[in-house]
Amino acid sequence: MMRKNAFTLAEVLITLGIIGVVAAMTIPTLISNTNGAQFKTAYKKALSTLNQAVLMNIALEDTDFSTLKADTGNASANYGTNAGSLGLMLKDRMQSATEISDSYETKPTLTEGTGTGAATPVLHYTIQCNGSAGSWTEPTAPSGTTITGTCNSEGKVEVNLPMNNDADNYAKFAFADGTSFWYNLDAENCTDVGAVENNCYGFIDVNGATGPNTVIHCANAASGECESSEITDLFPVIFHGQTVEPATDSARAVLFGK
Fold first, then answer.
1. Which of 20, 32, 212 is nearest to 109 (CA)?
2. How high is the mean pLDDT of the chain?
3. Is-contact 123 195, C-beta < 8 A?
4. In the predicted model, is pLDDT for residue 43 greater than 90?
5. Which of 176, 202, 182, 205 minimizes the C-alpha distance to 42?
6. CA distance 123 to 200
7. Mind listing the pLDDT tens digit for each residue in 63-73?
8. How large is the C-alpha radius of gyration of the chain?
9. What is the spatial distance between Cα 249 and Cα 256, in angstroms, rounded to a whole number?
10. Contact 204, 181 (CB under 8 A)
11. Residue 172, phi then psi, degrees to nearest 5
12. Which of 2, 85, 90, 98 has fewest C-beta within 10 Å?
């Protein structure tokens, strides 16, 4: 009489249990890494799109961020109505740009490495010092900011801007691919040549109102490193002259890192 080889029910259940445990341990990491890669790609694309928009504006209007005028409007109004404003530039140069101020239930905070509920979320960025190489002097701090440290060899000094002072004073635009761009309505004359940057900051949200709505923070950002699992969907930016660029070490690490 021949014997049939087969797994017992207990063996099958044990095997399935092991597979389940391994899946529970690895799937979240795989999903996080996948999301991180998607966020990184969308961030780079958004930066490129915004920079192309200002270059187009230079070609057609001979103006860039250094000639911006403060926008009109408020938390309940449509933005981009003031001649020379960033909102109007976005509407003119990006036909898919749509004002979405009411799409967010809560306003994300522009901060790096500060947990939710922090008393004073802060945006860190650098501004141009006065003088010339070898004789830099500290500039006047932009309204609402404090200067940290002294001018470095490149003539830059760090500025800290508490964001809870004017968190409502933003315009928010959505683009065709689902990315959104927030900027301060007071942004004007944005330049880093011979003058301090004047409230010319904002952030790119690569997936709109969809979560996690968390500002990027990389543990080793100062070394230019950021793991895929650390990449989230909000990227602070500074815009001046003809450029939109990362505003924090973490945002730079995502853009320029491997």
1. 212
2. 74
3. no
4. yes
5. 205
6. 12
7. 888 888 887 65
8. 23
9. 10
10. yes
11. -130, 125
12. 2
Is 167 exposed, middle or buried, given 0-12, 13-18 or 19+ CB atoms closer than 10 A? middle
C-beta separation of 206 from 197 below 8 A: no
Q: Report the distance separating Cα 207 and Cα 174, nearest Å.
A: 9
Residue type, 56: M
Mean pLDDT for the stretch of residues 68-96: 72
pLDDT at position 47: 92
Query: Which of 227, 232, 238, 237 has the alpha carbon at shortest distance from 216?
Result: 232
Q: Name the pTM for this structure.
A: 0.67
Q: What is the pLDDT of residue 199?
A: 55
Q: Cα dihedral angle (49, 244, 190, 175), rounded to 10 degrees?
A: 30
3-state secondary structure of 122: strand
Strand, coil or helix: 240? strand
